[in-house]
Amino acid sequence: MERLIIAGGDPLEGSIRISGAKNAALPILAASLLGDGPSFISNIPHLHDITTTMELLGRMGVGLTVDERMCIEVDPTTLTDPFAPYDLVKTMRASILVLGPLLARFGRADVSLPGGCAIGTRPVNLHVEGLRAMGAEIDVSGGYVRARCKRLRGARLIMDLVTVTGTENLMMAASLAEGETVIENAAREPEVVDLADYLNAMGAHVEGAGTDTIRIQGVERLAGTHYAVLPDRVETGTYLVAGAITGGRVLIKDTRPPLLEAVIAKLEEAGARIRSGDDWIELAMPGAKRPRAVSLRTAPYPGFPTDMQAQFCALNAVAEGVGMVSETVFENRFMHVNEMQRMGADIRLEGRTAVSTGVDRLTGAPVMATDLRASASLVLAGLVADGETYVDRIYHIDRGYECIEEKLAQLGARIRRVPA
Ligand code: EPU
Hints:
14 helices, elongated, single chain, binds uridine-diphosphate-2(N-acetylglucosaminyl) butyric acid, alpha/beta, 4-stranded mixed β-sheet
């Protein structure tokens, strides 16, 4: 086990490059199973969730080659066993993304049910119902989803609620189904659009990704292709908050500013001055002042992302004034609040809202990471705390932030990784 030790107090200054988006790379790697030849996928971040996905695909018999720049060649033609076992799925819920592609391409899939996790119960009923509506026979028992079909049929799918991986699973399955599938109340997240772009590059006919109605005309076959994953908007947002919270100036390169509108609006409200170009964003805190507290509500894209909620709790903890952060996507995504209280934050939980009265300074303390974004928020809090903050269980961070301590150190942070 490892931990991060952060000595707080320095304004961050400098520039960093953003990695490929984890939440786009995962569905794209799963979608590569649909091809009848190899795909070459680049701009893949070097993260635990990616290695877990590679292990999952490898165990199925898929051929994988990785070069030194994390370009992965995935050859699904050698797949022998369409099976996602519990020991891998339990470490990464996104493994459920192989269900749709396996079923559509090979006519069968046995995928372990992901359990609940630190942020909520997170069922996959909508994935299963959608595939059933497309003609799959699915038995959910003994902790597994066992799905069988001849060829899936297109269907009109009205999603009860907006689900990102649910939309992705059904979109992938529909690409090889017979006839047209329409997904209504689809997720509009940029990662869904990136997956649609990849599917279309393979020869699929997907239209409307990025809106709440996606139409897919099924095709007989999909080919392997070359594709570069889009930049990570949550990583971008996290480093922007790092600049704002420390009263610094950061230049974030190789990103996509239009994907961060809701986050940038809140940073400006907090007092940040933001400039951006095609693929960069610069944030400065004029006069290196404390940020102002902001209030926000998480919502599916283009609303404020739940994956940035914890980071803004950290910002509010040291801001001037009172900020209210409401979580509407997951029922239990405030595990970071207790840990921030241990650092001296004045945050009160009222149902699904964190009401925070900013304090002048936090104090360093040993804290524990409970999930990916919560752990990022504790690192941010550590950057502005007096003294040293020890963040334990950082395997959560390594699931979603590539080289976090190197990138923060590049911005001048005093941070190091040590054995726990
Ligand atoms: N839901 C259901 N039934 C379903 C599917 C979802 O009730 O069949 C509920 C969930 O329990 C949740 C809500 O719908 O309350 C939305 O969940 P969604 O399905 O959209 O989440 P997800 O697809 O499992 C993805 C990201 C998450 C991100 C959410 C919301 C990936 C691999 N994961 O999860 O990312 O928070 O969308 O934007 O894309 C992260 O990166 O830290 C992370 C957790």
